[in-house]
Specification:
- The protein is an alpha/beta fold.
- The chain is built from twelve helices and 15 strands.
- It has two domains: about 230 residues, Type I PLP-dependent aspartate aminotransferase-like (Major domain) (Aspartate Aminotransferase, domain 2, 3-Layer(aba) Sandwich); about 120 residues, Aspartate Aminotransferase, domain 1, CATH 3.90.1150.
- A hairpin with a 2-residue loop joins strand 6 and strand 7.
């Protein structure tokens, strides 16, 4: 038996294939076709956002968000340090300077107190914050939005991993000026590579759409006053994305069930700590992540791989990445500690409770032998 970290979960009625076949038959396989607006609408409906733009991946969606709000050369942009590179690279794409802020223990996401201390101490005001909801786990939104509001810092949410996650009943991705979602192949829902930018700001979405279409001016011929990007999603990818969105609730419920099953299996075992959750938050549990204090996680990872169980180290904090060695940071040791102790466990939504229990038993077995 092979246990994957997170593999695509296609629908039982194979609607992904049906929609793709329909798009092919109508020769709508490029940037024109009905599935693009339908996919965008499905994301708007789930999140409550007014506008959505489908693009080639989550990284490009974030790049477009920064371009659309006018962030550029020399600007400072705050960012969660405990995240994936796709969250931080767009800051460099636009020539801005990332400033990495560490996590809090209670959510593993950006620490609002650290953020406040940093902003109090700093005279140059950062233009924006790119806030990640890690592993589909909402950040401490009340406090972060309050601090950012006080200091005039715009919030852009990296909800790449957090489709359907909510805080205080409000969907992640809709708290700030803009939010993005990833539909990469390993995400809770996939379009086989894709991203969606959401916002309530009409001008922002129009500007993002302009940059995503190679900055084509509204003329009959191709006219360009600026440099843009070829970021639009194809109708084929949107066909898959729409089919997946139609089963969003079931898929999210399955990830939550898997987390709950791990929780039961590890209950009372002091050597294993699952990711915490803020009392107002309802994560989508994209990946169940755990900390281990009696074994080095990479050692556990190798032992589990030998049993066909795929795991992955937690994200290596951005402020420790060689490429950002010269970037500013405000840290407290939390994200480095998480990286040093944690693994993501198999969380594919196809997993049965029995399979989760089998993985948990293997993990406990390894800890018993090595501990
Ligand atoms: C936190 C985070 N940010 C950004 C991205 C970028 O998304 P994509 O891979 O679709 O470009 C991802 C996903 O891979 C992610 O996990």
């Amino acid at each position: 038996m092979k246990y994957n970290l997170s593999i695509p979960h296609l629908s039982d009625d194979k609607r992904e294939l049906k929609y793709i076949a329909e798009a092919m038959e109508n020769r709508n396989i490029g940037s024109v076709g009905k599935y693009i607006p339908e996919f965008e609408y499905a994301v708007r409906k789930l999140t409550g956002a007014k506008y959505a733009l489908a693009v080639i991946n989550g990284t490009s969606a974030l790049h477009l968000a920064l371009l659309a709000v006018g962030i550029g050369k020399g600007d400072d942009v705050l960012a969660s340090t405990f995240t994936y590179i796709g969250s931080a690279a767009p800051i460099a794409y636009v020539g801005a300077n990332p400033v990495f802020i560490d996590s809090e223990e209670s959510t593993w996401n950006l620490d609002p107190n650290l953020l406040e201390d940093f902003l109090k101490a700093r005279s140059k005001r950062p233009k924006a914050l790119i806030l990640t909801h890690i592993y589909g786990q909402p950040a401490n939104m009340d406090d972060i939005i309050m601090v950012c509001g006080r200091f005039g810092v715009m919030v852009i949410e990296d909800s790449a991993e957090a489709i359907g996650a909510s805080y205080n009943e409000r969907q992640c991705g809709t708290f700030g000026t803009a939010g993005i979602f990833s539909f990469a192949g390993n995400k809770l829902l996939t379009s086989g590579g894709g991203g969606i930018l959401v916002t309530d700001d009409k001008h922002l979405i129009e500007t993002a759409s302009y940059y995503a279409s190679n900055a084509r001016e509204p003329m009959m011929h191709h006219e360009h006053n600026s440099i843009g990007y070829n970021y639009r999603m194809s109708n084929l990818h949107a066909a898959v994305g729409l089919a997946q969105m139609e089963l969003a609730n079931e898929r999210i419920a399955a990830r939550r069930r898997i987390f709950a099953e791990y929780e039961k299996a590890f209950a009372g075992d002091g050597r294993i700590k699952l990711m915490p959750q803020h009392s107002k938050a309802r994560g989508n549990r994209w990946l169940t992540a755990a900390l281990f204090d009696s074994i080095e996680p990479k050692k556990l990872m190798v032992k589990l791989a030998n049993q066909g169980i795929e795991t992955r180290p937690l994200w290596k904090p951005m402020h420790t990445q060689p490429v950002f060695a010269d970037s500013e940071k405000y840290v407290n040791g939390v994200s480095e500690r998480l990286f040093g102790m944690g693994l993501c466990l198999p969380s594919s939504s196809q997993m049965t409770d029995e399979q989760v229990r089998a993985v948990a038993a293997e993990i406990i077995g390894v800890l018993d032998i090595t501990g």
